[in-house]
Give the backbone structure.
Amino acid sequence: MTATTPALTDRVRDVLGSTTLDDASLRRWLHGLPGVDEVGAHGRAAMLGTRSVKTTSKAWALDLAVSMVDLTTLEGADSFGTVRSLCAKARVPDADDPACPKVAAVCVYNDLVPVAVEALAGSGVKVAAVTTAFPSGRASLPVKLADTRDAVQAGADEIDMVIDRGAFLSGRYLKVFEEIVAVREVCDEAVALHGRRAHLKVILETGELSTYDNVRRASWLAMLAGGDFIKTSTGKVSPAATLPVTLVMLEAVRDWAALTGEIIGVKPAGGIRTAKDAIKHLVLVHETAGERWLDPDLFRFGASSLLNDLLLQRRRMRTGVYASADRLTLAT
Amino acid sequence: MAARLDVRKTYKLYVGGKFPRSESGRSYEVTDAKGRFVANAAMASRKDARDAVLAARAAFAGWSGATAYNRGQVLYRVAEVMEGRHAQFAEEVARAEGLTAAKARAVVDAAIDRWVWYAGWTDKVAQVAGAANPVAGPYFNLSVPEPTGVVAVLAPQASSLLGLVSVVAPVVAGGSTCVVLASERRPLPAVVLGEVLATSDVPGGVVNLLTGVTAESAPWLASHEDVDALDLAGAAPLPGEDATVDWGALEAAAAATLTRVVRPAGSATSEEPAVEPDWTVLPDGPRRVLAFMETKTVWHPKGR
């Protein structure tokens, strides 16, 4: 038993219905979850994707989607300059339109957190850092915790961690669970430093989990371990976020809320490039998890090029003519 | 012998190298010169026009970045494939324009020759329009024409093939990409040209052909911020008919987004009705190519 806080221990016992916490009890629980109807998930995602959202509803959805964007740059070539320009874009996405909402957060590697924190000071835009040896997650636990602590100390509001997919796929669920719990404890250290917790997003990297059943199990495991958000992917593996995957994860947070009363967020990341894709996701959120989740605190898009397409659609609605990306600032 | 079932052709749009139906699902009846039903053609919507601009923009980097020599070879290849489809073009043109078989064949000959003529200009236009400018200093000062970007073309209404070729070929010869609104009432030769382009090494998206109502789609293209130039050749109505396209309004909409405009031939103001020119006359130089090019001037220090 490694869950350190009494509250977590109690919750694990309640949810699992078991007094022991080990690979076997987690396996019994996770494999006892109902299987995902793959054909049904594809069909439902495709059906919801055909909904037509127009005029005032579309304008509302576009603004909401802009406010849900985690504007992301995760390249080896990132510099202080690229991060600063991304932060400027996050503060004022469309310089021609003061009514345009700010994005939710800027997502960077942890060594660039201080740059982003400084550039976003006072704007209300959050700083998210990817940690735990992102994107592969192949490092020892002390390294992953040091990576996370570094970002927390630098002032990151949100931590995007990756799970150990190797351990998950080989059935070592306790290892995955314990890592998430340990990272979450580091996130809690932010209370002493900055007077607030750092929110923890758990990246499942669904492109490597092979089945929707695994996506469902990983979602439940991450929520059990105390993640505030479950996130589809790193964006470095294809396929990244797809509608059916997001559907399965939204069902998981809905069912988790019914079971425990806890509201967990969902973040699809990677591969969402057009406003149309974003609106399809919003329809999915509304029809699966519910209106409660149509909130930047509970649903995010991990993206970079998506923002400009959303802005082009906003301009089109505002001016009545089709817009050109040449008239917008670069997203990265 | 059993009678064969008809294999009827569905005339579709040509966008991004593919042949989609209209996003709107609409189609309209195309008749021959005597008003008899020929086929249903796709009626493009503003969203088809938008998709076509996206495709043209995506294709621009590759097409404008290709060497002029390579573009010339690709365009010559188009003429080769047109030659192979000579009979099909002649049949479509005869039906659309009400010509005799012999006259239709002559029109197709002229269209192929016109295409070859513009293919030849690809690597020569910079020599004619470029310059080494004299300056008072130890510098080279060079002006070179460069393609403007995405061009929206209103194809001529009467000359369904020769006119079409005469406005499309110069745009792509210069290295720009285009979205073409085919002749509204005579669109079928344009669809066949799309099939030729699809099978002759022209990258998808370089030429996008839309069939439908010119007056409906043209304003969306004219006001589109991502369209760099507008050719109003198709604003002239069919002979003896009233104009349906208000090209003055299109020019005004284009001006709002700094879009280059080529006015219809022969009319100095939009008060004067536009009249379609005689496309059989060989152009007196690459004017239409240069109409869709920008001039870039660079200074370069002279070496010693």
Notes: Chain B has one domain: 27-301. Residues 155 and 237 of chain B are 11 Å apart (CA to CA).
